[in-house]
Amino acid sequence: MARSRLSGAIYFLLGSIFAGLGVGAGAFGAHSLKATLAPDMLTVFETAVRYQMYHAFGLFAAGWSAAQAPCRPFEWAGRLFTIGICLFSGSLYLLSLSGVRWLGAITPLGGVVLIAGWAALGWGWLRNRS
Prior knowledge:
Elements: H1 2-33, H2 39-68, H3 72-98, H4 107-127
Helix pairs in contact: 1-2, 1-3, 2-3, 2-4, 3-4
């Protein structure tokens, strides 16, 4: 039980870090990159920011859930959201800033991992409903 409560705190912390970095990346994109990136690459960058922010809140949900009703699906949700953010948003950031097109092939894998995170979160809620 203590491990899941610790996991909850870790996922709150990771959610806070990803949300803070998302705000910073969004500001960077809006103020610094707007003049330097091609419009299609700026859109890719904005997509990375948006999905990073959505899933930072997914990490908050996983952390809160793990702290309230410890179970493996909540821990897995946190892990999957963390990995998915890195793969999905990370590949889009790198693609938009470097122009290296093959990085876009990583993005769908990150998307699948994010979907699995939501599925794990939902499974945990179903297991713990009372």
